[in-house]
Amino acid sequence: MSADNELAVLRARLAQFARLCNNVPVAIAYYEREGYTCRYANHPYAAMFGRGEDEVIGLSFAEIIGADAAAQIQPRVDEVVRERQSVRYERQLLTAQGQRRHIEVHLLPDRDDHGQAQGAFVLISDITRHREAEAAARDSEERLSKFMHASAEGIVFHKGGFITDVNPPLLQLLGWTLEDMMGRSTLEFVAPSARQRVAEVIAAAPEISYDSVALHKDGREIPVELIVRTMHHAGETQRMTIVRDIRDRVDAEARIRHLAQHDALTGLPNRLAFDERAALALAAAGRRGEGLALMFIDLDHFKRVNDSLGHPVGDMLLQTVADRITAVLRWAPERRPAGEPDAAREADLVARFGGDEFVLLLAGDPGREAVSAIAAKLLSAVGLPLQVEGASISVTPSIGVALFPEHGQTPAELIKHADLAMYEAKSQGRAAWRFFEPTMAAAAYAALEMESRLARAVRDGEFLLHFQPQFALGGGTAEAGALVGVEALLRWQTPEHGLVLPDAFIPLAEERRLILPIGRWVLGEALRCAVRWHAANLAQVPMAVNVSTQEFQSPGFVEGVEQALAQSGAAGSMLELELTERMLMEDVATVRAALVRLRALGVRIAVDDFGTGYTSLAHLKHLPVDRLKIDRSFIADVPGDAGSVAIAGAIVNLGQRLHLQVLAEGVETEAQRAWVQEQGCDAQQGFLAGMPLPAAEFEAWLRARRG
Ligand code: C2E
Ligand code: CA
Ligand code: CA
């Protein structure tokens, strides 16, 4: 090969080498020892300092990299020269473009044949990205650790279920130290009942939240919520679990559950809880082929206690009743086979359904006899007097019993039937118990049907009035035989049953509170007729209207009367209200005030069915009453029956002494008329003198009479 050729090859090689040097991602330079003068720099090196490759040749390194940086690294350069060893260091650099970079610098000595360093190679790598990533990782780890310590919630890191870190709140929650917990299995700190689930979560590694139970050092179980996340921590993939103490929440939930299932006043289960448990008890008894008894207990006249003595006393009474019922069930020897503790009593249920209603479920196949014995005990135990603020009060219960399975298959059915039996006990004089009988259901169904028809009757105009005249007997100012009054009597014209008399529907209307709209209609209609007959000069006498207890006691009753008078254009003196003795015996002051206001309107007051209600004389004396109507049951047996004669005679006597008008009701015979006239009654009313008649017929009768 010629020297030229050789040179050409060398040149080519050199050019190739220069291309390589200029394209590697490393800055390369060579400085000779003498004056640290640059003899070579590749493109990246020169560019790093903002120069071209050729410009830097011959410059000192202080000139290239700047005096400050040169002073800083001079010791490393000296080291390379002195020790003839390569040196590595990192530093930060502000590039010619103003960027801050992290560089890693290698200084390699260039040794001559004697081992002396005659220069040094400089190799610089840009490690900015690397360092920044590291710093970021360091930062986030620091943040995480700070967060972990600052968090009020427990945090644990684990790897494959083995604990790598725990924060102080969790240590405190569980009662362990960090040393105790590090490296141990997380499962050791989980309650046995919750371990399987936790193990599953560790194995499957999902990101989830779930409720679990932690285990305290002392063995206590602590309800917790676990929030599990996969984290990169300390350069590794770990699982982070936030352990949230949910004891408060669990307690609150338990309290809410308790509240939802119990009656706050007595602490007994409420209807909701009863229905649930009764359904289970029924199912269990059904499987075993055993019977059950459901008792419905309602206190008699409890409302009266509540209204007159106040709610605190009422509440106290209910609590006492609850205790007494529970005690009776606990000590019911009739259900305990001799010498055996009674398992059935455990299954018994006592619940309060609200108000003064209690429901019992007697488990363990109690027979009718045992149930009767318990009912009798409840009757006497609940009815015992209770001392309240010096006073002695007592309320009796009425009890209805339905038996499973014969009287019903579901709790609802048994409750309904026991309730019916309870009503039966009440209607038969209260303070009693009754077993359910199928006829009760039939009667209840009929009542229900009538109730819904009654509710429509006012709207559909099915009511009408009959009128019965009242005549003077000649004892007072009016001449014998003169018309002194008219009584309006309610009738119900039903499409299904024809004309229905009031005794057949008024008690139900009162019970279901339908009497108020009915009473309003009666008053309005009676007054309209009175005004018409008055204007036509057919009857210048008061119109007597019957008032039920509920109407009289309803708020605004007097205002309602006032309004009815105004609407019909009737004067107050054209109206007589018939009240019963029972209404007058309630709270005297209130009753008196109402009567005084009615009297002020000019309305007259009559006491209906007098003699049946035992009104005390003293009482009557204080009330503004105009008239007594002797109940027709006394008149029916005069003059033959000595007892009736005595009573009716006494009433007339009493009326005269109190200066009240006395009217005899139900006079059917001439003998009765003669007797009441002889006694000195002012007036009579009855089939003898006049049957109750529909308005048109009564009006015709009035006209005929006048003509
Ligand atoms: P009451 O107020 O004692 O009405 C008199 C009842 O005796 C009426 O029965 C009447 O038809 C009946 N009667 C009249 N004379 C004789 C007689 O000589 N012999 C016999 N045995 N009975 C006689 P009625 O119409 O069936 O009313 C029954 C009860 O219904 C009334 O008894 C009254 O308490 C109530 N009532 C009637 N209308 C109304 C009303 O509009 N509102 C309210 N709340 N109750 C009413
Ligand atoms: Ca009457
Ligand atoms: Ca009467």
Short descriptors:
707 residues, alpha+beta, Beta-Lactamase, Alpha-Beta Plaits, 4 domains, 8-stranded mixed beta barrel, 27 helices, 27 strands, 25% strand, elongated, binds ligand C2E, binds calcium ion
* Total individual domains: 4
- First-last Cα distance: 170 Å
Number of strands: 27
CATH superfamily of the largest domain: EAL domain
CATH hierarchy: architecture of the largest domain: Alpha-Beta Barrel
Oligomeric grouping of the chains? single chain
Helical/strand content category: alpha+beta
CATH topology of the largest domain: TIM Barrel
* Alpha-carbon Rg, integer: 53 Å
User: Which CATH top level class of the largest domain fits?
Assistant: Alpha Beta
Helicity, as a percent range: 40-55%
Mean pLDDT: 89
User: Ions, cofactors, ligands: which are bound?
Assistant: ligand C2E, calcium ion
Q: Given the structure, what is the number of helices?
A: 27
Strand order of the largest sheet: 18-19-21-22-23-24-25-26
Describe the biggest sheet?
8 strands, mixed, barrel
Principal-axes shape call: elongated
